[in-house]
What does this fold into?
Amino acid sequence: MNDAEAASVVLHNVNKTYRLDSVDVPALKGINLLVRPNRFTVLSGASGSGKTTLLNIMGCIDQPNSGDIMVAGTAVQTLSDDALSDFRAKNIGFIFQNFNLLPVLTTFENIEYPLIMAKVAPDQRKKRVNELLDAVGLSDRANNRPGQLSGGQRQRVAVARALACKPRLVLADEPTANLDSRTGTAIIKLMRHMQRVDHISFIFSSHDPKVLAEADDSFEIRDGRIISVKRNDDRDESVA
Ligand SMILES: Nc1ncnc2c1ncn2[C@@H]1O[C@H](COP(=O)(O)OP(=O)(O)O)[C@@H](O)[C@H]1O
Ligand SMILES: [Mg+2]
It folds into this structure.
């Protein structure tokens, strides 16, 4: 297996332009990058630099205007819509800045939701949800709705939900932006633990110094272009 096949994500000359009221808004301009597997990778950059657009394209929830994308060794642009949905459900988990939990569902049900979508049998679902509740320290909040939880607890539910189907890649868009500093640190530690135990690749967008400090690799983006790449090889012990 060569580097590109083993990588979590490879982008080659990816361009994305939004069209807003008949005006073209270029968001990504010729992005080339290789995200190594089983790392904490951070995309940093000011607001409006293109981080969310880039994450959405890596997560196959948005498509570029041009360029090639490989995710976990698969050329995702060659997949049909159904195959792509299936690929995404099996391989990719998402964590959002504003948690995006379903307000009418309990903690248990929010975590269970992707398992229902993936047609996992009820007894298996229950087992997996309980395992995740335990891992994120929310077993005693299983029956609460998001409105009854703190921000940090909501984000822990979101982390558990993202990991429910044992994805290979988890994308997190500014996951600590709406959390106080202590809670943000706890969430980063939790994700780092899960990355090491479950060998998951995490890709964050963030300008939080706590997240940047924890990064193995980081890409800085400005006006839709990657302007610097840092790879921290001191942490190679965490690679499977
Ligand atoms: N849906 C959209 N329609 C039009 N322009 C958009 C849309 N989403 C993002 N943009 C523009 O694309 C650029 C990059 O945005 P974004 O990826 O959200 O950056 P970041 O996440 O770094 O703040 C910005 O100029 C933004 O205004
Ligand atoms: Mg953003």
